[in-house]
Specification:
The chain contains 11 helices and 8 strands. By secondary structure, the protein is an alpha+beta fold. It has one domain: 3-Layer(aba) Sandwich (Beta-lactamase), CATH 3.40.710. The protein has a 5-stranded antiparallel beta sheet, sandwiched between helices. It has a 3-stranded antiparallel beta sheet with strand order 3-5-4. Strand 6 and strand 7 form a beta hairpin. Helix 1 runs parallel beside helix 5. The longest helix has 15 residues. The protein starts with a strand and ends with a helix.
Length: 316
């Protein structure tokens, strides 16, 4: 596990445990950060909204490639961001109900999946958009394609010129367009995981199926720097921050953000689960503190992973 806490009085980072069964984890180790990717992609969408290139309440289909044969269910950009599109997740074809991977992934760990291939896995059923919250990574694969279509450039290039352009963010990477570099914490601490997975965390197949929904990797200090800049209004405006962090429904999910430390203190952030990794990150708007916790084990209580550090930051 690696963690970073930032407060007005300073920054602390710490690490414990094994990176690969041989070497100890350090605070500089990269971990897969899974669905924290969604917050970063959502922020890129909001930059395009601020630039007048996207409108939150226009149909998502208006911005997708014309040759893309996919039923967007009449959902708007806002509904994709907020998990209220009514579109099922492609992950149902890849992951069993108990979280184990289906053979479609395990048999080909080095396969590179494209966004269009992932969309072909989505089941036909739809519910009316805007009616219910349904956590579906398909929403963010579509948003990635929309960003590319609007800017006419690969998503990684847009991100690097946009929300990942800040100083000290080089180790916050978008896989598989960017590859992780040493030091790295292997999934489950398995020594040979990098060789099996083709050099990506946790594998080429897992990273590429993550696409714009859960493909990124980072070390904890770098990810904390991104959250500090985001919550300080240095990446998008305060108006966009308010829009993203307005939790209108009982699910406590806004636009790519949720109340990460609910029950402890007001917060905005995201958590993630991926094969061999769990991640938890966000900020506490009342005092600007930031907490990031990354582990290369799968924990049952993701929600409680960062709570002790949040309490420590608040007491500081």
């Amino acid at each position: 596990m690696s963690a970073t806490v930032m407060t007005a009085t300073g920054t602390w980072s710490g690490a414990t445990g094994s990176a690969d069964g041989v070497r100890d984890v350090t605070v500089d180790d990269q971990f897969a950060i899974a669905s924290i990717t969604k917050s970063i992609v959502a922020t890129q969408v909001m930059q395009l909204v601020e630039a007048g290139e996207l409108a939150l309440d226009k149909p998502a289909g208006d911005y997708l490639p014309k040759d893309l044969d996919f039923d967007t269910n009449g959902a708007t950009i806002r509904q994709l961001l907020g998990m209220r599109s009514g579109i099922p997740s492609y992950e149902e074809a890849l992951v069993n109900a108990d979280g184990t991977l289906k053979p479609l992934l395990t048999r080909t760990p080095r396969r590179h999946w494209t966004a269009r291939e992932l969309l072909q896995l989505v089941a036909a059923g739809r519910t009316p958009p805007g009616t219910t919250f349904d956590y579906s990574s398909t929403n963010y694969v579509l948003l990635g394609l929309i960003i590319e279509q609007v800017r006419g450039r690969p998503l990684i290039e847009v991100l690097r010129d946009g929300v990942l352009s800040g100083e000290g963010l080089e180790r916050l990477i978008f896989q598989p367009d960017e590859a992780p570099t040493a030091p790295m914490a292997m999934p489950f601490g398995h020594k040979n995981a990098l060789d099996v997975g083709g050099g990506y965390l946790p594998s080429m197949a897992d990273a590429s199926t993550g696409n714009a929904a859960y493909s990124m990797a980072s070390d904890s200090p770098t990810l904390a720097r991104w959250w500090r800049a985001f919550c300080a209004g240095e990446i998008v405006s305060q108006a966009s921050l308010t829009e993203m962090s307005t939790f209108r429904f009982a699910d406590r999910y806004g636009l790519g953000l949720f109340d990460i430390a609910e029950g402890v203190t007001p917060s905005v952030g995201h958590a993630g689960w991926q094969t061999g990794y769990v991640s938890w990150a966000g900020c506490m708007p009342e005092d600007g503190s930031v907490v990031v916790v990354l582990t290369n084990q799968e924990l049952d209580d993701i929600g409680g992973m960062g709570a002790p550090l949040v309490r420590a930051a608040q007491s500081d």
